[in-house]
Amino acid sequence: MFTRERVAFSVLVRMVILAGFLAACSGTNNGTPELTEAELEAQVQATLNAVAAAEPVVEIVEVTVEVPRTVIVKETIVVEKIVEVEVTVMPDETAMPEAEAETTESEADATEVQEDASEEGVAEADPTATVEPTPEPEATEEPEPTVAPTPTEEVIPVVVSEIPVDALKGAEDAPMISENFAPGDFWETYRDAVTSGDIENEAYVIRINDYHRMNWTFNGRAASDFYYQGEATHVKCNADDHYGLIFRVQDGFNFYLFGINCEGEYRLLRYNSGTFETIVPWTASTAINADRDNIFNVLGVRTVGNSITMYANGEQLSSVEVEDNTFTEGRFGLYSGTRFSNAAATIFDNLLVYRITE
Fold this sequence. Notes:
The chain is mainly β. It has 2 domains: 4-54, no CATH class; 121-355, Sandwich (Jelly Rolls), CATH 2.60.120. It contains 2 helices and 18 strands. Strands 3, 4, 5, 6, 7, 9, 14, 15, 16 and 18 form a 10-stranded antiparallel beta sheet that branches. Strands 8-17-10-11-12-13 form a 6-stranded antiparallel beta sheet, with no helix packed on it. Strands 1-2 form a two-stranded antiparallel ribbon. A hairpin with a 3-residue loop joins strand 5 (190-191) and strand 6. Helix 1 (4-30) runs antiparallel to helix 2 (37-54). The longest helix has 27 residues, at 4-30. The radius of gyration is 51 Å and the shape is rod-shaped. 35% of the residues are buried.
């Protein structure tokens, strides 16, 4: 590279050489001895060295400067979360209901239901009276359904009595619950892929599109001694379909269940800590309507202390004394179930609960 210093130096050298040459020529003319070519070259070189020593050439140095830069690196952080899950193992091949927390009076526990409800309606019924059903209700909320296992073979010891018991003996004049689902009061509704529990056309419909399944729903109010009655229409009777009333409900794993089936039989179970116990096994009765579609029955149950009496269409089926005090009070519910069919629908309406105080 040429700098201003180098250019000046080059011009100076050329001037010195030129001056030397002129001097040589002048010496020849004036009698001064003529310099040889080697002497002239030596003088030029000496002049150059002197100039270089006095004014050294400036060097240009190329410098590489490293500039730091910031690099943003993306990284993924995985956070592990441990969730505690309670698992309850049940005997046999039956399905265990999903855990249901105890609800407040304004909540009800949900259960599962089916897809084809009937379309016939029912007027509100007087206690023990038979009334025509009311069908196809309409959906509301969607709580989580509950699947119940099949009852065990264990039979609870009881004292059975055939002495007639007046269903309303000692009952208050006005019912504590008079439910015609217009709209429903304190009842939970739900829906999933194979079951549903909905209020439709001023009735509660439980539908089940699955085999070997039981589903229920609960009301938010409770009592100890009472007469509980409800109308039930089973839309299409298949083998071993069953349905009925639930009472003295503690939570989704503890209650009594009174049910009838399509063969004209009834039974009484206790669901104790997630296991069904048989109090009265399937027992035939001519008081129960059976063996046809749109079967209509008025079901009733009376509880006073350890005494439980069951009714169908105004007739007493049987009365038993349970020998312990497992559940002395609780809420009310409805249920429907299948075994060998995968399509069942039960319509419930005109529910009455009279508190017994005497």
